[in-house]
Amino acid sequence: MSNRIGRVYFILALAVLCSTPIIIGTQSHNRLLNLPEVVYVSPEGDPVKQALFLGIYVIGAVLLLTQVPVRQLFYLGMPLLLLLAWSLASITWSSNPEATFRRLVALFGIVAIGTYAGLRFDLREFIRLLTFVAAVVLVASLVVALVIPLDGLDPEGRLRGVFYHKNVLSAFCTITLFTLFIRFIAKLDQDSATRAWLGLLFLVALFCLVLSKSAGPFPALIVAVFALAIVRAAQVSDGRFRAILPLVLTLAVLGAAVLVPLLGGAELLGKSSDLSGRSEVWEFAATMVERRPWLGYGYKVFWLGSDAPAAAFWKASRNFAPHAHNGFLELALDLGLIGLGLSLAAVISLAVKISRLLRHYPDICLFWVVGFISFDLFVNVGEVRLWEPNELHTLLFVYIVVRTNVEFASFSARARVIRTGPPGFPGSGSFAV
């Protein structure tokens, strides 16, 4: 019974998380682009949105604390635990401590859901649940676009559905397509009726992606597919090469994420020559990081309100960017290079553990982890998805870290028994033999 409650909660929580703009009726307010109204918002936030999210997060926290032993929270891993602590500590130096506290409540809530999912659902079940979420969200997006086009379409007629921006929809569609692809090749479903509706969902996701007219996710998707192709090829190659491959890929993607903003990549990202105004935002953000390199300005307050540290940039450039348009720069602004370093340490630790698991348990579902991490790191070149509150990408990243740590601990325990104890130690989870 508890598993059923957890599954239903997870599907509903993610569906509401994605659909919040249409649920609380703010889509009609999101039709203005690059205007002061977009950024000069009240630092207190939207009370209706806050109440909705708080309800979701409280339920998630209750499920986590009542169904999971407290000691298992350490499966978050030391880098993420330290990053959470550092985020909380940023209240003390934040330029707006009250706003930082509210954003931290949202961050801890999203981390709680991701942790709960990581401890309760293995990869195969998680992929199934994620496709149910996609079905609800994408069908709702098409219905909204047909019934309320003022909300479902952006000012230029591009599909955004239940999301606040067409880029968010396109990223969600890309994750859906990739998840369905893994579900197909892993042969998780033998029922012909199930395969039929999943094929239809694949077409719906592709249709929504085309209607969004967003080219942003395509380079990231190419990187993810390329990473998977290399990993698959490495499975039949030398074991030592296979073991270090995910780490090498992670470092390569991180390097690309840093070099693209520095060297220019308009064509690669499908943007205009100035990257749709991103280049001057990146230059300003980098300059501000240099002023407070270690601590940052406090979690999620740099671009918040008319008195925010970013206000001088808005007034001088008339470029009313709501964030740094780069997840790595954004995190450095929020939590300094220390916070950014902890985040990258979590990614590298994840890559090392995935390398070991790939070497010994080449489950096809593990490819979803490699693909999503590659996609997520690269998409943060032009968007802000890294360590964000109320953000699906943050939830998925936390899930992957927790689930990988669970499986790696199980793998390490079995390895110790094989070396020192009797054989036949039972396997568990997605990577069990």
Summarize this entry quickly.
The protein is an all-alpha fold.
Q: If you had to describe this structure to a student in words, what would you say it looks like?
A:
- It contains 16 helices and no strands.
- The radius of gyration is 21 Å and the shape is globular.
- By secondary structure, it is an all-alpha fold.
- The chain has two domains: 142 residues, no CATH class; 195 residues, no CATH class.
Which descriptor suits the 3D outline?
globular
- Give average pLDDT, whole number: 85
**What is the terminal-to-terminal distance?**
27 Å
- The whole-angstrom Rg is 21 Å
Q: Which stretches are poorly predicted, pLDDT < 50 over at least 5 residues?
A: 262-270, 424-428
- β-strand percent reads under 5%
Largest sheet: none
Structural class: mainly alpha
Task: Kindly give the count of domains.
Answer: 2
Which sequence of SSEs, written as H and E, runs from N to C?
HHHHHHHHHHHHHHHH
List the helices and strands and how they pair.
Blueprint: H1 2-23, H2 36-39, H3 47-67, H4 78-89, H5 97-120, H6 123-147, H7 149-152, H8 166-185, H9 192-212, H10 217-234, H11 239-263, H12 278-291, H13 311-317, H14 327-360, H15 366-379, H16 392-420
Helix pairs in contact: 1-3, 1-6, 3-5, 4-14, 5-16, 6-8, 6-9, 8-9, 8-15, 10-11, 10-15, 11-14, 11-15, 12-14, 14-15, 14-16
List keywords for this structure.
2 domains, 16 helices, single chain, 433 residues, mainly alpha, 0% strand
